[in-house]
Amino acid sequence: MSMKIALIAHDRKKEEMVNFVTAYEPVFKHHQLYATGTTGTRIMDSTNLKVHRFMSGPLGGDQQIGAMVATNEMDLIIFLRDPLMAQPHEPDIIALLRLCDVQGIPVATNIATSEILVKALDRGDFAWRELVHKYKPGETE
């Protein structure tokens, strides 16, 4: 099953993202990839993957991905954040992460969690959508 995957990386994490996506290119080639501006360009320059590019994060790219999350059109987000650098668009970042929590979208914010999610994706262990939609908000088992 093809998944829609967003790839976002802060400036000091872009090289790490490119290395990660390159290492897992055989997995990513079976999915629809989305990324914010420069991150998407760098991934496409370093791999044979096609990536739909949104605007740069500070210029609204995070919000564009957030719109897909809000309308339940995104399946997974890998967002390599730089926790040691203040981001001028921090409210947009927090809003995106909040939307992921509201919609139950898996999001990885570091390389270790990213690897766990991509390995699960590769194994086909990604039945979370069926579990999330089995119980509607407000319902109990």
From TrEMBL:
GO terms for cellular component: cytosol. Keywords: Lyase. The active site is at D62 (proton donor/acceptor). GO terms for molecular function: methylglyoxal synthase activity. Its EC number is 4.2.3.3. Residues 1-141 form the MGS-like domain. PROSITE patterns: METHYLGLYOXAL_SYNTH, MGS. It catalyses: dihydroxyacetone phosphate = methylglyoxal + phosphate. Substrate binds at H10, K14, T36, G37, T38, T39, S56, G57, H89. Gene3D superfamilies: Methylglyoxal synthase-like domain (3.40.50.1380). One of its GO terms (biological process) is methylglyoxal biosynthetic process. Catalyzes the formation of methylglyoxal from dihydroxyacetone phosphate. Belongs to the methylglyoxal synthase family. This is Methylglyoxal synthase.
